[in-house]
Design a protein that fits this description.
Layout lengths: L8 H19 L4 H33 L6 H22 L1
Helix pairs in contact: 2-3
Length: 93
Amino acid sequence: MSEPEDKDPLIREVRQHHARRSAWLREGEPSVGRRLAQIGVLGWIIVAPMLGGIFLGRWLDGRFDTGLFWTAPLLMVGLGLGGWFAWRWMGSA
């Protein structure tokens, strides 16, 4: 017996493609301003977690007098989180 139509990934993707195509035909191509706004948001999605990691790492390093022991790894964690957030945001846009 086959799966119900709601759970079939092919049918779900075809419906999603049809909905995107219909929206594009209805709304047209996004403006240059909208594209620039998306680029700006994407930049902040990546930078904000990195800055959070730097601030938290500097605070921990100052509190425990450890040089850059916490700042460098938390910067990398922030970069990873920012990349993941950006990847998910681009997938949903």
